[in-house]
Each structure stands twice: as C-alpha cells, then as structure tokens.
C-alpha cells in the first residue's frame, strides 16, 4: 500500500496525537531506570512534530516532512532520547529523496536509516537494552515484532544510557524508549485503520 505525502502526514499526525496518552506510563517506566523524563519528551516531541508537519506546504515532499519532524522532535525537549530519535528522521530524509509517497520500500528505508543513526550516535547495538531492541526487529516486520522486542528488554541488563547506572536493577523493567517506539507503531497502525 502506498500513500501520498499528504496522506502520510495525516496518518503521522493522528498517530502522534495518540502518543501523549501514554506519557504518564512512559514516565513511570523511565523513572524506574533513569530520570523519568521520557513521558515529557514524548508529549513535547509529538506536539512539536504535529505542529511542524501542519506548517509544511501541501506539496512538501516526504524528505521535507522527515526533516521537519526530526528537527521538531530533537529540539522539543533536551533529552538523550529526543536527540537520538530526532536525529533519525534527519538522516532518513536523505534515504527517501525524491519519493512522492510512502510505501513498504520507503518505510524500510526510513526504519533502517533511523536505526543506523541511533547505532552510530548512541554507540549501541541490539541487546544493549535500548530503543534498538524494538526498532531493529521491527524494521522488516514493521510492527509485529516491536512489542516482542519490548517484552524481551525486561530480561536484559541495561548497558547504555541512564538505565545502565542501575545495573542489575534494570532487569525486570521493559526499556522505556523501546516501549515508546512500540506505542508509536501501535498508534500508527491505528491511524492507518481509521
């Protein structure tokens, strides 16, 4: 299924408008492993991206939308998650230059570019208990395995970020960033179904 750039922006807007409902739960998850700011980051970042997408002209390209989204998310709240996740769409914009719509190929290109940027910038890999543990398995499956990745993070000791500071106490808690990503995919799936 391929959607136009305007349809894609509308779907992203609906998905991002659904994310703040999870902010308190994400804050609680993050507080168990880190500083508890993830809910704030998701709420502020979602609102900033929605505003940035709305400000784009109707003929904006997929690359334009990704650039606007990445800049908005990364600057909405000063957090590691915002910097890592916001930087992904900035790199992904280059991967889909010239695309006049979004389909499976563009989704894969975007997902791989975002994951690559997080790997590079966060110096992390699959199994480090980061957002990558949901993102990487879901890139090819797109949605189905993201939740499985989130569940699997509960049995892993955090090796990166603030959660690494609590060492073995991180075991038993799902990674908040991975959970935020899975919530986004669920919201995006809901937006497609609406």
Topology diagram in text:
Blueprint (H helix, E strand, L loop, with lengths): L2 E2 H14 L4 H11 L4 H18 L6 H15 L3 H16 L5 E2 L1 H19 L9 H10 L4 H8 L22 H18 L1
Helix pairs in contact: 1-3, 1-9, 2-3, 2-9, 3-4, 4-5, 5-6, 6-7, 7-8, 7-9, 8-9
Fold and architecture overview:
This protein is mainly alpha-helical and 194 residues long. The chain has a single domain, classed as DhaL domain (Serine Threonine Protein Phosphatase 5, Tetratricopeptide repeat). It has nine helices and two strands, in the order βαααααβαααα. A two-stranded antiparallel ribbon has the order 1-2. The mean pLDDT is 88.
Short description:
The protein has 194 residues and is mainly α. It is 66% helix and 2% strand.
Attribute tags:
single chain; 194 residues; mainly alpha; Serine Threonine Protein Phosphatase 5, Tetratricopeptide repeat; two-stranded antiparallel ribbon; 9 helices; 2 strands; 66% helix; globular
């Amino acid at each position: 299924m391929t959607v136009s750039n305007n349809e894609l922006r509308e779907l992203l807007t609906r998905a991002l408008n659904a994310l703040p409902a999870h902010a308190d739960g994400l804050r609680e998850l993050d507080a168990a492993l880190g500083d508890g700011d993830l809910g704030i980051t998701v709420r502020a970042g979602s609102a900033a991206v929605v505003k940035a997408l709305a400000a784009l002209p109707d003929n904006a390209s997929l690359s334009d939308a990704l650039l606007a989204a990445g800049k908005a998310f990364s600057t909405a709240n000063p957090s590691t998650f915002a910097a890592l996740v916001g930087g992904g769409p900035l790199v992904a914009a280059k991967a889909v230059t010239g695309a006049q719509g979004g389909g499976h190929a563009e989704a894969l290109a975007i997902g791989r570019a975002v994951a690559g940027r997080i790997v590079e910038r966060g110096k992390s890999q699959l199994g480090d208990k980061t957002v990558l543990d949901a993102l990487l398995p879901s890139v090819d499956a797109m949605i189905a395995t993201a939740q499985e990745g989130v569940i699997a993070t509960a049995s892993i000791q955090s090796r990166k970020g603030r959660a690494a500071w609590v060492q073995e106490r991180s075991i038993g808690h799902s990674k908040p960033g991975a959970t935020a990503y899975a919530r986004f995919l669920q919201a995006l799936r809901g937006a497609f179904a609406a």
